[in-house]
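Q: My collaborator sent me two sequences in one message, no labels, and asked for predicted structures for both. Can we handle them in order? The first one she listed is below.
A: Yes, handling them in the order given. First sequence, followed by its structure tokens:
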Amino acid sequence: MIVRVHPSSVKGNIQANASKSCMQRACAAALLHVGKTEIINPGNSFDDQAAIDIIQKLGAKISWLENGSMLVESGGIAPLSNTIHCGESGLSIRMFTPIAALSQQQLTINGSGSLLKRPMHFFDEVMPQLGVDTISHDGFLPLQIQGPLIPANITIDGSLSSQFLTGLLMAFAAAGANTISITVLDLKSKPYIDLTLEVLEAFGVSIINHNYQQFEFTGKGFSQEKSNLQYKVEGDWSGAAFLLVAGAIAGGLTVKGLNVFSTQADKKILQALSDAGVGLSIQEHQIDVRPLPLKAFHFDATDCPDLFPPLVALAAYCEGTTVIEGVSRLQHKESNRAMSLQSEFAKLGVEIQLQDDLMIVKGMQEGTQLHPLKAATVHSHHDHRIAMATAVAALKATGPVTIEAADAINKSYPDFFMHLQQLSVDLNITEN
């Protein structure tokens, strides 16, 4: 899909899309909960669809209710297939592998696209300690496992991704772990673990968090008290970050359906917007944003690396030089996201420098009225967030910006371009 975005002002109200971080975790928890779970406001992204397919292959029954909710009926892990496919979802592969290992059945875990290039050495090192026979292709997919997983006191490295820990927390809880702990060294993306613990709590699981260094299981696993549960998926701060930045640079808008008390890591976009001088009105269930003179900012994105793309679009329109920390977290995304941002924004006339763990974005020169963002053809690198970042940056360029492989947005936010159109953005979509 090719999308051409013309310079536009944005205005109006929009409802945030469902959070795939919440949706995928809810699917996993609903699979592990013996009984029925109604998931309210389910997501429809490719990653969400991958999670739905996985839990069906692991034994869950899915039906759709008239109110739009998704009903999950589960009797626990009972694989219907010996192959689990995770699409391109990094969370799914890392979360569902330990969960699938609760079964005694030999299973092959696979994926596609960029997921085939992401390192999975973690499983080779950790799963055998839990009684799971594990064979990978030199630390990459496909992965062959045979359980059952038996909880044990272990120490893991949390520096690459918190998603591995999310899977272990869920699997240990489902296996009835009691007086057992997972010790974690150098945990990154702590807010995502807060989200995991929050979802687990909604399903009756109690885990004691000792300052993100040790997680202690109390024996209180998935709820046996209620066979019927409900879980509502929050609005997505990751996708909404692009809309909020669009409002900051191209006109006022309102984003509804966001929980300002959310544990989602990307809620920190509000701090970056505030530091950049954006006009913000924050209410419990909606955010109003309006453009004001923007200034360069310094932001630590180590715990929220998915914010790099919208932050770069914002920084391009700020006066001065913006510094964003946490570049090391970008290497194993859908693309090498630091390099992708640097190359694609260079086509738009924005200079990005990479120095150790820092990304330095050269914004507007002092006193200039027009930013040198220019008409160009860019490529998403098949990375949903690169596609969205360049679309937002295009809103105040000197001419139209053409985005190739723009269908990458389907991974997390299929309605993104439709939502931009609802906000009065002039864009054209051409199917390949």
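Q: And the one she listed second?
A: Here it is, processed independently of the first:
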Amino acid sequence: MALLEIRDLVSGYGQVQILWGANLSLQEKKLTCLVGGNGVGKTSMLRTVMGLLPPWSGSVWFEGKDVSRLPAYVKAEMGLTLVPEGRQLFTDMTVEENLEMGATNRRARPKMKQNLEKVYTMFPRLQERRAQKSGTMSGGEQQMLAVGRGIMADPVVLMVDELSLGLAPVLTLNLFQSMRQLRDAGITVLLVEQNVQMALAISDYGYVLAEGKVEMEGPARQLARNEHIRATYLGL
């Protein structure tokens, strides 16, 4: 049974429909990527799954339960965590204060110290700068902090929206490697990413979203060899 399952999901903003019956399932302790061009509905899917955007129809199932209509804070306490696009940090707060904000739900509070050690082990730069205000950090450091804050929520499923957006290649590589570390630590990861080549290279399984529907899915290595994907998304 899938740990998280999206069934025929339809949603949008106001009168504008973005998702047109999307389906996706996450297997436990696997790294799954959702790739596709700009504006195809990747972020809308994550927001709907998390409860930040109401589904118009279809359903979201987590650990065998229908969680479609539950508010975001309840889903967070169940172990669903979203690292949003654009980081959305508290820029006037320090690195450590931002991390502590990630552990405010009832599930995460008892494990705050343990998860803080995990974050600092994975991202030593954050430990070095734990007293620095997050607004003064580089884009790459801020993205590390956003991922770290997600880890502080003690997730069962960590959904990461546009991990590499606007980052230098060396930092991008480090962050992609951290996704694999999280998977190896037993966290189920859903990575939404425009860097199709890198996302498929590190993932176990992949989905390709086009115009609000899943166009293709399969083992990530198999998708990376697919001629349509190579031509459309990789320019090969």
